[in-house]
Amino acid sequence: MEVPASPVASVNSASHTRSEIHYVDLLAERRQTSDLRWAVRNWKSRGNYKYGTPMSRKEIFDRVMHSDRVVYTVNQLVKEGCDEKKLVTEVDEILEQMGHTQELSIIRQFAFVLPKVMKRIYGKVWINEDGIEKLRTTLTETPVILLPTHRSYADFLLVSYIAYHFNLPLPVIAAGMDFMSMAVIGEKLRGSGAFYIRRSFMDNPLYWAVFQEYVQTIVERTGTPLEFFLEGTRSRSGKSLPPKIGLLGCVSESWLRGRLPDVAIVPISISYERTLEEKLYAYELLGIPKPPESTSGLLKAARILKENYGDIFIHVGDAVSVRGFLGPRVDRHLSAAIPSHLAPLTKGELCACESLGYHMLRRIQQGAVTSIWSVMCIRLLQTLSTGQWSLPYDTLVQDTSWLVRILTKIGAVIATEGEVEESVERSLSIHHDVARKGEDGRVHIQKLHFQPPAAKQPTSKKILFGEDTVRPAVTSLVLQYYVNQAIHHLVRPALVAVALTSLHTTGPPTVETLKSRFEFLRVLFGYDFIFETNAEGRDFMEGLSVLTWAGAASLVQDHVHLIQGGGHLFTTLLHLLAPFTLTYAATARTLALQEWADNGKLVVAVQRNVESYLNQGVGQYSALSLDSIRHAIRALVKIGGATRTASNGESAELRGERQHLNTVLEALNEPPLSPVLRHKL
Fold first, then answer.
1. Does residue 118 register a pLDDT over 60?
2. CB–CB of 100/5 below 8 Å?
3. CB-based contacts of 674: which residues, under 8 Å, 6+ apart?
4. Predicted TM-score (pTM) of this structure
């Protein structure tokens, strides 16, 4: 059968070289043959770990129950006064709630249903076949951890479907409790390999012990690939979230404590041309009542089967060796004489695991395919920020073509079919509810917000903003969601641009001065964007080199000069970060107003502050995003812009430190705080 040609161009860049990548469409064969016959075929995995031992659910439970770690934890709790029988019963209950099964009959059901749904709503599901064969080889040699991106509920069984399609070992999947509570589906997911864990349990030593032993038994004994989402939850903003290192540290411990010679971690980048939950995410980020459909209702709604959600791109990256990454960063000999169940990860080991988490997220970003729509949204959002709801079609095509050339030179992989204009036309047809080409030759951005019926609004919530704010904000956040899928390619030159703008008022800065300001901004935005540990110098040079080869800046006698105001690229980069700089500036000013005992009230106050800027004509409505506001608060606390204080037995309050906050505002090229009296609310 002829395989459809991949729409992804090859990329060669100064920073790294990727030879031509061949993608195949997983649905091509499914459109020509029987789904039922394919699902019930004689299936056998090829690529099982050569030292793995298959274990039943009961065998896994028995091993966990009688493990040194769980026995020791139970004994310690008994010494503290707990009842042993109740503790043993609790372990049984945890395992029953947590434990997975892998029933081929259930997996076949999903193998039959999933292609039928995907063929209705997606055009093609592209995957790099060479990555699959590399993964198969790795699976036979060492235990494997699969780390896919998490942007949609559609991610959950996609990796399992790929494994079934290519006859790879089926993964065991870490899932949150919210999946388990779904009627019927919860047990079906368990039967396909999902095991359920609580969202938070670090303060429960017994649950933590059972969890660790369960995960490590899967990895160390069975050799079954383990899949989990490094970010912990779906990203509502389209950007990568900071890594959660609980599971990553747990699997790394198997090597750190010498129980495995190595563990391989495989990044899997999943890129959706159109995300099922795009509008729902916009409402969630505003913190206003959701439209009548919930997320589960969205996935059940028959109307999605009538929509075109474009293509999915899946890139299976090269495996990263835990031994190779952590080896130079830790000293395993320090805990060699201690029984492994009595040797929790040290602070240094946890820091090394966090570095590994950031490294894996960068690998996932580098493997992601960027859609033309994401590039178009950069220009569409820039237009909306000026208060305009349309722009000439020819301008959109011209600017998209220019940005594609820039991104390709930087090292991005852009999904194009034919000429850029053809891809723009196709994207407008897929995203017709967001932007449409009119008969007047202009592209019209659509107003996506509608007023939900009052009777259906939750009584515990109310809309915080007026319609004049909500209407452009919903559309802006949908556009921002897709901009954020490409922003990691441009954030380094954009931060250099912001740093250069804030310093250039006093003349061209030296390279060292510019680098210092860049590093400060890099820390400040460290929760909103992914930066690898100890890579400040590399990131700075990467960002500065983009500005120099693009002709926006030049180096003259160790000073960095803007060339004619920086030009089109420089302006675009500043616009790209404008919503984030507004959010952080508004957060700094809000923190300076008073002492905050309630974090929720602080977040709402920041949104109100941002809205006041919007009412003055600033068009960056995506600055209202709750994600960025929470990240800004965390970042300002981290750098000393705010401190937590407690007095007279009261709960801790957050107090802004004006000197540090003014430093932040200066770096953002914002006016300093005005002298006002602080008050307490």
1. yes
2. no
3. none
4. 0.92
